[in-house]
Specification:
- This is Copper oxidase.
- GO terms for molecular function: copper ion binding; oxidoreductase activity.
- Keywords: Copper, Metal-binding, Oxidoreductase.
- By secondary structure, the chain is mainly β.
- Among the domains are: 1-116, Cupredoxins -  blue copper proteins (Immunoglobulin-like, Sandwich); 565-738, monomeric porin ompg (Porin, Beta Barrel), CATH 2.40.160.
- It contains eleven helices and 45 strands.
- Strands 34-35-36-37-38-39-40-41-42-43-44-45 form a twelve-stranded antiparallel barrel.
């Protein structure tokens, strides 16, 4: 395969993409179980790249995560991957370098079984994906800036007027109190969703009466889909490449990076629609199988975000768990679970019975061999399956949680028992899934990848992980090189998967056996922008590193999740102009701001701030401003230091002291009141008690008040109309430009 940069048009505009053998997606790689794969990947781009073989059980060195397991493919170089094919089923591959997956570096893998066990005449690979005309780096930079434009663009924003019209003001206040804007489903606006590289696909060659195996892969960067079918109910036969007990299933949720196989029957008359609808209802993509009149797939209703907020506000739930901790070295997942999320005494008691001594609370799922269900050493595990199912059932059946109840895996049943030997030691791990939408930081147990150690896994031991999602978003968690049991109502026949979707504010338990694998394996949320913002870990067998990786430090992979992103704004109005420049990574931020009023009032400031946790920073810097109103003849430069704090109800508080011992406090807030329309306000009070300065009139005290208020109308992602009044500059209007 050859990877190169090319101009492509997937959503009505020519943009630079990354192709595999000239296409997006790349070619389907077809193999036979029991064979041996040899794949050459050539990089004809001017940047490094990589390929990860998602869901394949292979030697650690060929897993394809650059700087962790496999060398990056440098520009102009060709890399050889080779591994035995120990499994059959539907899988896929994608780049694991920065955000390249979003630009088109992904494709499908089909491994045919040694013996065919399912009855069908033909098969079709269906790769679902999302497409943006923006540069993926700019998307992540924009998300770090924390604006609502993407939700506005796709019609999923919840402005205050709509909330009030639904009677949801109390719920909105509850969310604001917990520093949450509202329920969120998906982060990014996509102009197109794709089936095998196009918004719609026609497959007219299928004949009436034929049974067709659809191998569906969600290769999207950040979109989960609802899959629906026209005509008769399809039969779900495989999940993540492994056979399940066949079941008729009409509406199936497919998380990012999951795969599902269905058998559909082409009707005697007409063609059936296979439709994938984006989870937030912002778009869809379809494939049509057969000929004649279309038999449409059922519509999936758009989620009711305001209704979700109102239901969640009725519940005893603490939202807004921190994505950053004061002390990331102090990992206390059980305390975090007790403080945040569902406050259920019976469930808390059960969780507290877990081994609190398990410090590896950052752990993840790993399974050994593909044939684990058949392995006599894994015949039965003494876990009380039904108790776990009961606990999950309590979560599902609680009043008000019906909006999440359909996100479960109970329809998946393994054809054979997947339990382990009762004699195996078991290691319990709790992983809280945590995030901060304002700053777009994602983590596990409040600790991003850049601030944590590896998760140690022991061979010959069962690792059982409970995912406790403390965010409003779904998180498809994927462990490289392994499969794991997803505990569901089928108990001993719980299915095996390599990726598990964890719904908002819910728990899912998985377990896996540490076999004879070696090396380090990547584990992460498969929403690309969450992974690249810190929601990842390295799972380690603590074995010596492959000497071929000596010149590729793993720190480079970790640094990818802690890069600096800039978010800047220029205001040009009839009464003043202002510029704000900021660049930040997870913990550090640099700010440069300047305001100049046409009446000759001026202030500029440079600060460095350090995030102690999500909502609190300490900062220091230099401030320059004119000392005489409406005159630039004299300016004063002071050193400043203080704290910045995001309060409940989302007020930005700045409390500081300068080198003249003058305290200053300010508050700022912005609220979207209508679609595209926000109101904002700012108030600042500074006092001088004469501790350093002498006053001419003999007074021992002076103060200064600055305030402004205004409205903003968003014309586009980067441009807004703004009108405001400032007590220094007066009234005016103009443009605000984000860049």
């Amino acid at each position: 395969m050859t990877i190169r940069k090319e101009m492509v048009d997937k959503a009505g505009k020519q943009v630079m993409g990354m192709t595999l053998n000239g296409g997006i997606p790349g070619p389907t790689l077809t193999f036979k179980e029991g064979g041996y794969a040899v794949i050459y990947v050539k990089n004809e781009m001017d940047v490094e790249t990589s390929i990860h073989w998602h869901g394949l059980l292979l030697p650690n060195f060929y897993d394809g995560v650059p700087y962790l397991t496999t060398p990056p493919i440098e520009p102009g170089h060709t890399q050889k991957y080779e591994f035995p094919l120990r499994q059959s089923g539907t899988y896929w591959y994608h780049s694991h370098t920065m955000l390249q997956e979003q630009s088109g570096v992904y494709g499908s893998i089909v491994i045919q079984p040694k013996e065919k066990s399912l009855q069908y005449e033909k098969e079709l690979v269906v790769v679902l994906s999302d497409w943006t005309n923006e540069k993926p780096h700019n998307i992540l930079r924009f998300l770090r800036g924390g604006t609502e434009w993407y939700n506005i663009k796709k019609g999923t924003a919840t402005p205050l007027n709509q909330v009030i019209a639904r009677g949801g003001l109390k719920a909105q206040l509850n969310f604001w109190k917990q520093r949450m804007e509202g329920a969120d489903i998906a982060d990014i606006y996509y102009p197109a969703f794709l089936t095998n590289g196009a918004t719609t696909q026609e497959y007219p060659d299928f004949k009436p009466g034929e049974k067709v195996r659809l191998r569906v892969i969600n290769g999207a960067a950040s979109t989960s889909f609802w899959m629906t079918f026209g005509g008769e109910s399809p039969t779900l036969v495989s999940a993540d490449g492994l056979d399940v007990v066949p079941v008729k299933h009409d509406k199936t949720f497919i998380g990012v990076a999951e795969t599902y196989d269905f058998i559909v029957t082409i009707p005697e008359q007409g063609k059936i629609e296979f439709r994938a609808t984006a989870q937030d209802g912002s778009g869809q993509t379809s494939a049509f199988l057969g000929q004649g009149n279309v038999i449409l797939a059922p519509d999936v209703p758009r989620p009711d975000k305001i209704g979700m907020m109102m239901k969640m506000a009725e519940m005893d739930m603490k939202m807004g768990a921190p994505a950053l901790k004061f002390n990331p070295k102090k990992d206390e997942p059980y305390k975090m679970m007790e403080k945040w999320g569902m406050q259920m005494k019976d469930e808390m008691g059960a969780m507290q019975e877990m081994d609190h001594g398990m410090h590896g609370a950052h752990s993840k799922n790993q399974m050994g061999s593909m044939n684990m269900a058949k392995d006599t050493t894994m015949a039965h595990h003494n876990m009380d399956e039904m108790d776990m199912a009961d606990e999950e059932g309590k979560m599902q059946n609680m009043e008000g949680m019906s909006m999440f109840s359909e996100y479960n895996y109970d329809y998946l049943k393994a054809p054979e028992k997947t339990t382990y030997s009762p004699d195996l030691p078991v290691k319990e791990i709790l992983l809280n899934l945590t995030g901060n939408m304002q700053r777009y930081i994602w983590s596990l147990n409040g600790i991003p990848l850049s601030e944590t150690d590896k998760i140690k896994i022991n061979g010959g031991e069962v690792t059982r992980i409970t995912f406790n999602n403390l965010t409003m978003m779904h998180h498809p968690m994927h462990l490289h090189g392994h499969f794991f049991r997803v505990i569901n109502e089928n108990g001993e026949y719980s299915p095996l998967k390599h990726t598990v979707n964890v719904p908002p504010m819910q728990k899912i338990t998985i377990e896996f056996y540490g076999s004879e694998e070696t090396g380090d394996w990547f584990f992460h949320c498969h929403i690309l922008y969450h992974m690249m913002s810190g929601m990842a870990r390295i799972v380690s067998y603590d074995t010596p590193r492959d000497p071929r990786m000596d010149e590729y430090p793993v720190s480079k992979l970790i640094d990818e999740t802690d890069q600096y992103y800039s978010f800047n704004m220029l205001d040009m109005a009839s009464h003043m102009t202002a510029i704000n420049l900021s660049t930040a990574n997870i913990r550090n931020q640099f700010n440069l701001s300047a305001e100049y009023g046409w009446n000759n009032n001026f202030e500029a400031e440079f600060t460095y701030e350090r995030y102690l946790y999500d909502y609190l920073t300490v900062f220091a810097g230099i401030n320059v401003e004119n000392t005489v109103p409406e005159s630039l003849d004299d300016t004063n430069t002071t050193a400043v230091a203080g704290i910045r704090y995001l309060t409940p109800y989302l007020f930005s508080l700045d409390a500081r002291l300068d080198n003249e011992l003058r305290p200053r406090i300010s508050l700022a807030r912005s609220v979207m009141v209508f679609p595209k329309v926000s109101l904002f306000g700012y108030y600042e009070y500074q006092a001088d008690f004469g501790l350093v300065n002498d006053f001419e009139n003999g007074a021992n005290y002076s103060d200064e008040v600055v305030w402004s208020a205004g409205a903003e109308y968003m014309l586009s992602k980067n441009v807004s109309l703004v009108g405001s009044y400032d007590n220094r500059f007066g009234m005016g209007a103009g443009l605000s430009i984000r860049f």
